[in-house]
Amino acid sequence: KSLNSTRKIMGFFGLVLLPEKLYAQAVDDAFMITNASLGPDAKGKSVVRLVVDGDEWVLCTLNAGRTDNCTLSVTIPEGTEIQFFVDGDNEVHLTGQQAEREFGEDLTDEDLMQADEEELE
């Protein structure tokens, strides 16, 4: 019999989208987008678009001086084909976190008994 001793680790996700440039990739590790913000010196309106497995969605519309950032809660699963695109003249910063990953090792009954014995000493 064994128990799994694990710890969960989350990492930072960040991507700067430049105007009128397409960003495409197959996702290796799931991640969550939690914020979109206009870059410095932004002027006018920018629309952030996300294409997931061929379906296009508007993530947010940002307006300099009025709506400079937007809180999001979008999880992109592992293995998904995605594309990001910004309509407008501004760079947009996407931030968030990589999905939790578990790291650990299997502990056997013997390992647990040894740990108990060491506590008693």
Topology:
Elements lengths: L1 E8 L2 E6 L5 E4 L4 E8 L6 E8 L2 E9 L5 E8 L4 E8 L3 E7 L2 E8 H12 L1
Antiparallel strand pairs: 1-10, 2-9, 3-8, 4-7, 4-9, 5-6, 5-8
Give a verbal description of the structure.
Helix content is 10%, strand content 61%. It has 121 residues and is mainly beta. The strands form three sheets. It has a four-stranded antiparallel sheet, with no helix packed on it. Strands 3-8-5-6 form a four-stranded antiparallel sheet, with no helix packed on it. The protein has a two-stranded antiparallel sheet with strand order 1-10. The protein is globular and about 65 Å long. Mean pLDDT is 83; it is low at 1-7.
Order of strands side by side in the largest beta sheet? 2-9-4-7
Rg from alpha-carbon coordinates:
21 Å
Shape by Cα distribution: globular
What's the main sheet like?
A: 4 strands, antiparallel
Number of strands: 10
Overall mean pLDDT score? 83
Summing up helix and strand content along with how strands pair, one would put the structural category as mainly beta
Order of helices and strands: EEEEEEEEEEH
N- and C-termini, Cα separation: 25 Å
Low-confidence stretches: 1-7
Number of alpha- plus pi-helical segments = 1
Q: Which bin fits the share of residues in helices?
A: under 10%
Instruction: Give the percentage of residues in beta strands.
Output: over 45%
